[in-house]
Amino acid sequence: LGKEKTHINIIVIGHVDSGRSTTTGQLVYKCGGINQRTVEKFEKKLELAKSPSLRRKLRRLNEYYPQHLPPQS
């Protein structure tokens, strides 16, 4: 079947905007913790999130339900 994976805990410390999440994400990806298909799925969702029409919809929702959504710029 499959080979057993060892689980480890890692702590990453750094200043704001120093790339902690990016570095950790690359480490997990390079070690086989995330497959390429999952990465492509997240990239597609990111592109959709950048869509002007989606931002308009989020802004409209924020007008009606401001207590449930973070402020949109």
Care to describe what's here?
- The mean pLDDT is 79.
- This protein is elongated.
- It is mainly α and 73 residues long.
- The chain has helices spanning 20-30, 36-49, 52-64.
Q: State the low-pLDDT regions, or none.
A: none
Instruction: Report the total helices.
Output: 3
Portion in helices: 40-55%
Largest sheet: none
Number of strands: 0
Strand content: under 5%
Rounded mean pLDDT is 79
Shape: elongated
Radius of gyration: 18 Å
Q: What's the gist of this structure?
A:
The protein is an all-alpha fold. Helix content is 52%, strand content 0%.
SSE layout and pairings?
Blueprint lengths: L19 H11 L5 H14 L2 H13 L9
List keywords for this structure.
73 residues, 0% strand, 3 helices, mainly alpha, single chain
